[in-house]
Amino acid sequence: MFDDAVLQCFLQKQGQLFPEDVAETLEEADNFLEECMAVVVESVKDVWDYFDEQGVDMEGADEEEILEADEVFDVGDGRYLIVEC
């Protein structure tokens, strides 16, 4: 479900969301993200849409604040991984 770029991103940046590593290998990362029902979106607009659909109050927030949320991981290729556990 998650490609290597997404899994590598999560492995490298998981400390922004968790106090200690929850995965050490690509397989562990894949399993963890599947259990959390994490999603990969294709653009910043999709990040906004995701939070809107989840009922997150974004009134007054700007793009930078949304992308700096602990649960949003910039994959580096225009996509974003959203992890809510």
Q: Work out the helicity level.
A: 40-55%
- Shape descriptor: globular
Strand order of the largest sheet: 1-3-2
- Proportion of β residues? 5-15%
Strand count: 3
Q: What's the pLDDT, averaged over the residues? A: 95
Q: Given the helix and strand composition, which structural class is it? A: alpha+beta
Number of helical runs? 4
Largest sheet: 3 strands, antiparallel
What radius of gyration results from the CA coordinates?
12 Å
Give the termini distance in whole angstroms: 17 Å
Order of helices and strands: HHEHHEE
* Unreliable spans: none
Task: Explain the overall architecture.
The longest helix is centred in the middle third of the chain and has 11 residues, at 26-36. This protein has helices at 4-13, 26-36, 44-53, 63-67; strands at 39-41, 72-74, 80-82. It is built from four helices and three strands, in the order ααβααββ. 42% of the residues lie in helices and 11% in strands. The chain is α+β, with helices and mostly antiparallel strands and 85 residues long. Strands 1-3-2 form a three-stranded antiparallel sheet, with helices on both faces. The protein is globular. Strand 2 and strand 3 (80-82) form a beta hairpin.
